[in-house]
Amino acid sequence: MFWIITLILLGLFLLIVEFLLIPGATVAGIGGILIIAYAVYSAYVDYGTTTGHFTLIFTAIASIITIAFSLRAKTWRKVSLSTNVDSKAIEDLDKEVKLGDEGLTMSRLAPSGKASINGKVYEVWAQGELVDPKTPITVIKVETNKIIVKPKQL
């Protein structure tokens, strides 16, 4: 029973590491779940159904309590990001780029890519076709954060 409890504690530790230090589906989270599942399975196999049920219930309650307390702890505030982002990626794009402005693609537009318009580089979108690099373009629509272009008619 000592090894089952040890495995459950190790699995809970790995889940906490996953939630607080390494967000995403990483080895720590998957490993923690697999270790806890193996510990509960071992309890069923080695000690029978009744002990297996108690182990499963204990593990579920312990998991919820451990995660709740670790998320409430003020210790994590020291290592977490506390700055607020209050700006936009592109502000007032329609003031910088006007309908009919011309430019030159810097990368292939498939359908989006980079283009130089009025001496600045923007991410632009081609309307319905692929556009090769170094192709002259014309702005046909400017939305809040999107520039739609087409190849310039020669």
Write structural notes for this entry:
The chain is α+β, with helices and mostly antiparallel strands and 154 residues long. The protein is 44% helix and 19% strand. It has four helices and five strands, in the order H-H-H-H-E-E-E-E-E. The chain has a five-stranded mixed β-barrel with strand order 1-2-3-5-4. A hairpin with a 4-residue loop joins strand 4 and strand 5. The model has no long low-confidence stretch (mean pLDDT 83).
Question: What attributes characterize this protein structure?
Answer:
19% strand, five-stranded mixed beta barrel, alpha+beta, 154 residues
Secondary-structure blueprint of this entry?
Layout: H1 2-20, H2 27-47, H3 49-72, H4 93-96, E1 102-105, E2 112-117, E3 120-126, E4 136-142, E5 147-151
Parallel strand pairs: 3-5
Antiparallel strand pairs: 1-2, 1-4, 2-3, 4-5
Helix pairs in contact: 1-2, 1-3, 2-3
Summed over residues and divided by their number, the pLDDT gives a mean of: 83
Please state the overall shape, judged from the principal axes of the Cα atoms. elongated
Structural class: alpha+beta
Count, helices: 4
Beta-strand level of the residues, as a percent range?
15-25%
> What is the string of helix and strand elements?
HHHHEEEEE
Tell me about the largest β-sheet. Answer: 5 strands, mixed, barrel
Number of strands: 5
What's this model, at a glance?
The chain is an alpha+beta fold. It contains four helices and five strands; from the N terminus they run H-H-H-H-E-E-E-E-E.
